[in-house]
Amino acid sequence: MSSTASGKSGTWRNWGGNVTVRPAREVVPASVDELAAAVRQAAEDGLKVKAVGSGHSFTSIAATDGVSVRPQLLTGIRNIDRKAMTVTVEAGTPLKRLNVALAREGLSLTNMGDIMEQTVSGATSTGTHGTGRESASLAAQIRELELVTADGSVLTCSEKENPEVFAAARVGLGALGIVTAITFAVEPVFLLTAREEPMPLDRVLAEFDQLRTENEHFEFYWFPHTGNTNTKRNNRSAGPPQPVGQLAGWFEDEFLSNGVFHAAQLLGRAVPAVVPTVARISSTALSARSYTDIPYKVFTSPRRVRFVEMEYAVPSEALVDTLRELRAMVDRSGLRVNFPVEVRTAPADDIALSTASARDSAYVAVHMFRGTPYQAYFTAAERIFTAHEGRPHWGKVHTRDVDYFAEVYPRFGEFTALRDRLDPDRLFQNDYLRRVLGQ
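Now predict its structure.
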């Protein structure tokens, strides 16, 4: 079982601790053939099948009471093609291992999210993304996919081969089959300079378009109950490398961002009245800094403080209104929000159910410390997001259903028609997919 999500006696629990399930059986296939056989066997036994990654989704997208497929033996790099500049990797490989292996080969993905604990297939299937002006989500960097479909056959898809499957399966929600290998576009490893600096929220919102267009990767964190943000700009650099010093790195990334932050969360959960004061102190604790390093060391950071999260993609032109409404809602609600709100951007892509499908997007993520009641805050935030035709991250908390998705995704019908063709008997169905895709 993975270290991030596990349980005792056959119970599986996700990283956020809000999903628990007990499958009828678990299989750990060591090859694509073994996986295909397990899929055929499940169909014979009348059991549903779901593959599960590292459990970093906050929804029950990977939950099943049928056959749970664990991917920990389907890991590692199959092939590096330096002429085509691609790498083919087994679906269960954690992003962390992929990033380290690529760096050893002098290669890198173009863009990535801020956590690298997830498996490559779990991250791409749910639409995981970082922030970028031109460079989009992990799924948008896929050049070819291999998946085991409901009848146990192995299907390869790319722009040339089975292109209609490729258009949908890159963000496939586990509904079209079980992904067994992914081919990503890569490039020679490069350096990024990160500039982190506090900035008033009003200034960030006034200059948002400029910050988004002048930087290759722009993101910021707003601390509710304050007018403060911490901004981060990542841009390519000629070097030389100037990594965060070990002591400074430990102090800011481990001590402040994980250790002290965790203590502040525990205090806020026990005594909600102190949250605004703690937020003011936290939001001024981090000072400006710059560092230059290889991409995964700049894009990603450890997340040891466990939380529950909701994230919506709104059209980028709606971001400023969305945040102003979110701020007004928190101020008048009496809620005590102990976690920063994270804002990132992505360019439009051509994947049917990608949250950035056919529109430039801004992502707004709200979090609450694990064990703190989050429903009132998330419900109020979701009301604001949906008023702007927001699309929720498939792996994060939301209450939307098939009727809503049919409205906000122009290519929704294309996806469900493909699902009817590839999985007519709904072998890969679960409660979550029934809600978001229909029967």
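Residues 1-9 have pLDDT under 50 and may be disordered.
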